[in-house]
């Protein structure tokens, strides 16, 4: 390995991805962000590239560019989209979009990063899943792809463990992102119902998710792999398997 080591985070321009990137930067890591929009924030060790990660051609081209310039020793597949809808209203276009973003992009970026993930002997992959993988009304295509991402995580952990690469997933519950606040404003009845379902009686923050991701990304944390950590304030209790 001869190039600068970086952690690649998708969707780090805002929300959970930004919190993860900022936590990594605070720890002294160099971060590469790939997102469809440029970030409205900056840091001396943050490098940002724009691409539509649902487009195979753009994803392949940018993955090749980044891996040619940098040694990717950790990867956070965070970029995602909800595409709300029930089985009565979901469309094939919705399904194609989230499959491209949650599966295709993750697959292409992981494949592109594999040479340096293997070469460093301590590669780390973190996939951002969702509590919705356990089931969530009006999220049929979203929950299906997030559940599939957990399956991908477990399979990759089995395939790559011998190379010193760990692969884990973080599955957030209700998190106070801009998108969440837009759909669930303070004081709204549906927001109160969500709060009532949370054991710790507060909405999570992007920083809550970032702390979980950093646990899995630590170079010293090489004996935990194939796991799913629900960052959900206890909303999965009685639902998620032990």
Distance between the termini: 40 Å
CATH top level is Alpha Beta
According to DSSP, the number of beta strands is 7
Beta-strand percent range: 15-25%
Q: Could you say what the CATH architecture is?
A: 3-Layer(aba) Sandwich
- What structural class do you assign from the helix and strand content? alpha/beta
**Helix run count:** 7
Describe this structure in words.
The protein has helices spanning about 15-25, 55-70, 90-120, 140-160, 180-185, 190-195, 205-215, and strands spanning about 5-10, 30-35, 45-50, 70-75, 125-130, 165-170, 230. With about 240 residues, it is α/β, with parallel strands linked by helices. It has one domain (about 5-175, about 205-225): NAD(P)-binding Rossmann-like Domain (Rossmann fold, 3-Layer(aba) Sandwich). It has a seven-stranded parallel sheet with strand order 3-2-1-4-5-6-7, sandwiched between helices. Helix 3 (about 90-120) links the parallel strand 4 (about 70-75) and strand 5 (about 125-130). Helix 1 (about 15-25) packs across helix 7 (about 205-215) and helix 3 runs parallel beside helix 4 (about 140-160). The longest helix has 29 residues, at about 90-120. The model has no long low-confidence stretch (mean pLDDT about 95).
């Amino acid at each position: 390995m001869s190039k600068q080591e970086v952690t690649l985070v998708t969707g780090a321009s805002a929300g959970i991805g930004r919190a993860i990137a900022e936590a990594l930067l605070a720890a002294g890591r160099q971060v590469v962000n790939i997102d469809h929009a440029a970030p409205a924030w900056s840091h001396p060790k943050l490098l940002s590239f724009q691409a539509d990660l649902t487009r195979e051609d753009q994803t392949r081209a940018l993955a090749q560019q980044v891996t040619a310039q940098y040694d990717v020793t950790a990867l956070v597949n965070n970029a995602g989209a909800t595409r709300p809808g029930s089985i009565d209203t979901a469309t094939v276009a919705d399904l194609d979009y989230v499959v491209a973003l949650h599966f295709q992009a993750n697959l292409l970026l992981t494949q592109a990063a594999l040479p340096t993930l293997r070469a460093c002997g301590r590669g780390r992959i973190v996939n951002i899943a969702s509590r919705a993988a356990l089931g969530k009304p009006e999220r049929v295509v979203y929950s299906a792809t997030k559940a599939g991402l957990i399956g991908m995580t477990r399979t990759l952990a089995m395939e790559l463990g011998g190379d010193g690469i760990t692969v884990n997933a973080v599955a957030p519950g209700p998190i106070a992102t801009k998108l969440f606040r837009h759909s669930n404003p303070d004081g709204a009845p549906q927001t109160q119902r969500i709060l009532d379902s949370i054991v710790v009686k507060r909405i999570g923050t992007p920083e809550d998710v970032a702390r979980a991701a950093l646990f899995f990304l630590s170079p010293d944390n090489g004996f935990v792999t194939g796991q799913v950590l629900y960052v959900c304030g206890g909303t999965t209790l009685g639902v998620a398997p032990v």
